[in-house]
Amino acid sequence: MPALICGSLAFDTITTFPGRFAEQILPDQMHILNVSFLVPTLRREWGGCAGNIAYSLQALGGQPVVMAALGVDGGEYLARIESWGADTSLIWRDGELHTAQCHITTDRDNNQITAFHPGAMSHAHKIAVPPRSQRQDLAIGIVAPDGRDAMWQHAHQMAAANIPFVFDPGQQLPQFDGAQHREILGLATWVALNDYEARMLSERTGESIEAMSRRGNVQGVVVTLAAEGCEVWVRGTRTHVPGVKAEGVVDPTGCGDAFRAGMLYGLERGWTLARSVALGNRIGAIKIASRGPQNHDLDGVLRDA
Q1: What is the 3 state secondary structure string of the chain?
Q2: Per-residue pLDDT of the chain in tens (305 residues, 90 and over written 9)
Q3: Complete edge-to-edge strand list for the sheet that includes strand 220-224
Q4: d(CA 258, CA 72)
Q5: Mind listing the pLDDT tens digit for each residue in 137-164?
Q6: Residue 56 — φ and ψ, nearest 5°?
Q7: Domains and CATH numbers, the chain
Q8: For position 272, what pLDDT does the model report?
Q9: CB under 8 Å to 79, separation ≥6 — which residues?
Q10: 287: burial class by Cβ within 10 Å (0-12, 13-18, 19+)?
Q11: How far is CA 258 from CA 49, 118, 199, 281, in A?
């Protein structure tokens, strides 16, 4: 059944710095920081959390329904998503702003510095999650990084429509205060974070990850640990799901989104959370061996899932 993917659609400009950021930034000079990185390679990729998740989910055989905002320059991206066979009926086009733009520089240790222009994404709250009377087929959803108001409204709208959803605050986590995070946690079915975000969310809410996983409405909290795999917390019990060794470490951009696509695929089919994130780990490892967030091939990945 279809999965509602709420999040951003963006164009990613990706550059590579052959050195290390740590060697260029002096900690005792942070108050007058002025650095420039020579980036000999540059490419433009399709991106945004909703687009990246939908790409991998469609490649797995899922049915993503993309709910996001595109700008005046988004016609080609819309056609691309339609070419996958994904549902684009909930994509909104802004008549004035440009599509969101993300500029990412990665160093030799796979550390990243990102600059993001929201553009049309800042109006994503103008799209509403359809009520059950209009879309009874939506089996699951995800609130991924998007405009702040859109994330807030879509979380409440999914809960009102009785659509179980993953709360994935990502880089937008700092946009909400502790009380607002606690309110969204009271609506979500699952929570997905990386280890840094998990610490930040705990600090903002005053709740440990263990405590979050014991909330009556929360079926599980997932904390990703990069190559080490992830932690799965269910009703206060922690399980470590090992990582999958990648064939090569080429580009980490979009790995978290690829992971979430695998997780959604499994959850929509009634798999356990641990089995679902194990598939997510495999897809993340495949993605990191490919440049860009939407160029990896997932043929055959489900044979042993």
Answers
A1: CCEEEECCCEEEEEEECCCCHHHCCCHHHHHHCCCCCCCCEEEEEEECHHHHHHHHHHHHCCCEEEECEECCCCHHHHHHHHHHCCECCCCEECCCCCCEEEEEEECCCCCEEEEEECHHHHHHHHCCCCCCCCCCCCCEEEECCCCHHHHHHHHHHHHHCCCCEEECCHHHHHHCCHHHHHHHHCCCCEEEEEHHHHHHHHHHHCCCHHHHHCCCCCCEEEEECHHHCEEEEECCEEEEECCCCCCCCCCCCCHHHHHHHHHHHHHHCCCCHHHHHHHHHHHHHHHHCCCCCCCCCCCCCCCCC
A2: 899 999 999 998 989 999 999 888 777 776 777 888 899 989 899 999 999 999 999 999 999 999 999 999 999 999 999 999 999 999 999 999 999 998 989 899 888 888 889 999 999 999 999 999 999 999 999 999 999 999 999 999 999 999 999 999 999 999 999 999 999 999 999 999 999 999 999 999 999 999 999 999 999 999 999 999 999 999 999 999 999 999 999 988 899 999 999 999 999 999 999 999 999 999 999 999 998 899 999 998 888 77
A3: 64-67, 3-6, 140-143, 165-167, 190-194, 220-224, 230-234, 237-241
A4: 27
A5: 999 999 999 999 999 999 999 999 999 9
A6: -70, -40
A7: 3-23+41-288 (3.40.1190.20)
A8: 98
A9: none
A10: buried
A11: 9, 21, 22, 9
**257 included as an active-site residue:** yes
Catalytic residue among 137, 257, 299, 304: 257
Exposure string over 53-67, b if 16+ CB within 10 A, otherwise e: bbbbbbbbebbbbbb
Give residue for tokens 């951009």: 253
